[in-house]
Amino acid sequence: MMKRFAQRLVAAPAFEYGIVTLIVGNGVLLGMETFPDVARRHGDWMRWGNDVILAVFILEALCKMLAAAPRVDRYFRDGWNVFDFSVIVGSLIPASGEYAMIARLARLLRVLRLISTMPELRMIVSTLVRSIPSMGHVLLLMSIIFYMYAIAGYHLFHEHDPTHWRNLGIALLSLFRVVTLEDWTDIMYTAMALHPMAWMYFVSFVVVGTFVVVNLFIAVVINNLDKARAEHLQALEQPDSREAIVHDLRAIQKSLRRLEERFERHGR
């Protein structure tokens, strides 16, 4: 009986919306703690609110475990459930003494639970994680381009502009600034004061480094996102598990019995 109640509760949309509301509220409380005046006036209420939200999160995890009983391991097979459980365990660290900073950071992780409660955000994060192996070749290509341009920049500009090109490490940092398009024209104009054609070096690097490589990253992510969506649709189209089918059959049998009882009453 308790298991069925937990299953209905966990599957209810209102339950999910309530958890999302609490996560947002917890984020608001964490933000309010950064204002000393507010924390000084309403510190007790804010601590009470954090304790209540943590208690609800613990009850949520217990309900999900009860819904998966007696196979509680099914709860921990889901990586998002493991993440939620880890956040809850981390939030139980006492917020005093030498572990005070760890406890505050653990409470901050509760805001990340907003990702685990929304399927769309879960799909995006899963896509980014799946894209990491595919991005290895893109990173290798980008590293080669950076290395070549850094050495070329050192030989071209290190005497005139040692601030940005005095060695390989500083040249790489300067190129990273260029590829982020953050005031990169200042470096270019300094180089052009000695070499008027230096703009060709910087423009070519911006085109290759920013537009080509960044678009390759985007292409990899979009490709993996399409695959994740296809797998999600395929999972939705798969037949229900044996337990779900048995549960539906029992519900149908109960409905048929009720109809038979009504027919018998009307027949009399």
How would you describe this structure to a colleague?
With 268 residues, the chain is mainly α. It folds into two domains: 2-116, Four Helix Bundle (Hemerythrin (Met), subunit A), CATH 1.20.120; 122-237, Helix Hairpins (Orthogonal Bundle), CATH 1.10.287. The protein has 13 helices and no strands. Helix 2 (13-32) packs antiparallel against helix 3 and helix 8 runs antiparallel to helix 12. The longest helix has 39 residues, at 119-157. The mean pLDDT is 80.
Sheet-strand content, in percent, reads: under 5%
Low-confidence stretches: none
Please name the CATH topology of the largest domain: Helix Hairpins
Nearest-angstrom radius of gyration? Answer: 29 Å
Count of separate structural domains: 2
Largest sheet: none
Specify the number of helices.
13
Name of the CATH architecture of the largest domain = Orthogonal Bundle
Taken from the alpha-carbon principal axes, the silhouette is: elongated
Structural class: mainly alpha
The share of residues in helices is: over 70%
Name of the CATH class of the largest domain: Mainly Alpha
Number of strands: 0
Terminal residue distance: 35 Å
Order of helices and strands: HHHHHHHHHHHHH
Mean pLDDT: 80
